[in-house]
Amino acid sequence: MKLKRKFFNRNTVIVAQELLGKYLVRRVGGKVIATRITETEAYCGRNDLACHASKGLTERTRIMFGPPARAYIYLIYGMYHCLNVVTEKEGYPAAVLIRGCELANGPGKLCRELKINKKLNGIDLCGSKELWFEDRVERPAKINKGNRIGVDYAGKWKDKLWRFYI
DNA sequence: ACGATGATGAAC
DNA sequence: TTCATCATCGTA
């Protein structure tokens, strides 16, 4: 069953944890790939110095300021893409980074495997036939927590335990 | 430990 | 227009 917008229109830290165990589904051409999400990170608003939206509303970050459940995708280190899903009400810039799944263990590899790139930036993950999230019946897993990766510049925000994995 | 590789935002 | 930085990965 597809996750609805309501699921994403909530506190980002909650959404990041509840996305664990859900399925990311990608259709490219006639092929459908579904893979279970194993690692996420929460990026929470303008005050969070690790969040791109701490720079304010720019061309890049405007997707995060938009309505929940849209894809925020950007190029990182000149060669990899990262997939995020926008959370919280429109106007509040926050998102969950999908860091890993059963098919691939890092955000860059995940996007490479699923053929996710900036062409999908901004799409509605509730209305898309190319990329969406699904809930499948299964036992809830134990959630581990840690610090977010690669954000040592973010002052006190770098120590937030906003990375979740199973 | 480090280089690949290019978009982004801030400074000038 | 230039410059430092970067939510990574593969090779060493």
Q: Can you offer a commentary on this structure?
A:
- By secondary structure, this protein is of the alpha+beta class.
- The protein is 13% helix and 31% strand.
- The model has no long low-confidence stretch (mean pLDDT 97).
- The structure holds a DNA duplex (12 and 12 nucleotides).
SS-derived structural category? alpha+beta
The proportion of residues in beta strands is 25-35%
The counted number of beta strands is 8
The helix tally amounts to 4
Helix content: 10-25%
How far apart the termini lie comes to: 21 Å
| Major sheet characteristics | 8 strands, antiparallel
Q: What's the mean pLDDT score? A: 97
**What sort of overall outline do the alpha carbons produce when their principal axes are compared?**
globular
Order of helices and strands: HHEEHEEEHEEE
Radius of gyration: 14 Å
- In terms of per-residue confidence, which ranges show pLDDT below 50 for 5 or more consecutive residues? none
List the helices and strands and how they pair.
Layout: H1 5-8, H2 12-18, E1 23-28, E2 31-44, H3 62-65, E3 71-76, E4 80-86, E5 94-101, H4 107-113, E6 131-134, E7 144-146, E8 163-165
Antiparallel strand pairs: 1-2, 1-6, 2-5, 2-8, 3-4, 4-5, 7-8
The chain binds a DNA duplex (12 and 12 nucleotides) through strand 3, strand 4 and helix 4.
Question: Quick gist of this model?
Answer:
The chain is α+β, with helices and mostly antiparallel strands and 166 residues long. 13% of the residues lie in helices and 31% in strands.
